[in-house]
Amino acid sequence: MIRSELVQKLCDHNPGLASHDVETIVTTFFDEISHRLAANGRVELRGFGAFSTRARDARVGRNPRTGETVDVDAKRVPYFKPGKEMRARLNV
């Protein structure tokens, strides 16, 4: 599902809301998750899962085109851990 499909589904389920209002809600929702993760926080949605970040150490990588070694800096990457209810839905 892509973002526009999500907005359309929400519009279909909530006919009293204008499509631009639904778009604002979806944008705010994703922006708040992003801001919280950027602040090294955690976002937990009960029954769905938890978003957090994980630290990756610096390492030496390889350019696949040329084969030369490249230094890769340390970074944080997003991580999602599904909740118990989500895992149960997926493994029926």
TrEMBL record:
- Name the residues that span the membrane: none
What GO molecular-function term can you cite, just one?
DNA binding
Which keywords, in A-to-Z order, does the entry hold? DNA recombination, DNA-binding, Transcription, Transcription regulation, Translation regulation
The record's Gene Ontology biological-process terms are:
DNA recombination; regulation of DNA-templated transcription; regulation of translation
Q: Which Gene3D superfamilies match?
A: IHF-like DNA-binding proteins
What is one cellular component GO term in this UniProt entry? cytosol
**Pfam families, A to Z:** Bac_DNA_binding
Q: In terms of domain of life, where is this protein from?
A: Bacteria
Assembly and interaction partners = Heterodimer of an alpha and a beta chain.
Similarity remark: Belongs to the bacterial histone-like protein family.
The task this protein performs is described as: This protein is one of the two subunits of integration host factor, a specific DNA-binding protein that functions in genetic recombination as well as in transcriptional and translational control.
Put simply, this protein is called Integration host factor subunit beta
Native source species: Sphingomonas liriopis
